[in-house]
Write a structure and sequence with these properties.
By secondary structure, the chain is an all-alpha fold. It contains 4 helices and no strands. The chain has one domain.
Length: 66
C-alpha cells in the first residue's frame, strides 16, 4: 500500500475543489498522465505543482473552470 503523503493529500483536495482530473491538470498546467502518476503516489509532483495545488486548496489561486 502506498503511503499517503502531504503532496498526495493536497492534490486530492485540489481535485475535489476543481471537480475533475482534467480541470486540475489544466489549472496546474500539467499533462493529465503526470497528474495521475502523482495522485497514485507513483512519483512525487514537482515543488511548483505542489505549491500551485496548495494555492487552489487555500482558495488563493484563480481557477479556470467553476
Amino acid at each position: 500500500m502506498q503511503k499517503e503523503t502531504a503532496s498526495i493529500r493536497t492534490l486530492r483536495r485540489a481535485l475535489e475543489t476543481v471537480g475533475s482530473e482534467e480541470r486540475l491538470a489544466a489549472a496546474l498546467n500539467v499533462a493529465p498522465l503526470d497528474l495521475v502518476r502523482w495522485l497514485s503516489g507513483e512519483s512525487p509532483p514537482p515543488d511548483g505543482v505542489f505549491m500551485a495545488a496548495l494555492d487552489i486548496v487555500a482558495g488563493t489561486r484563480k481557477r479556470r473552470h467553476r
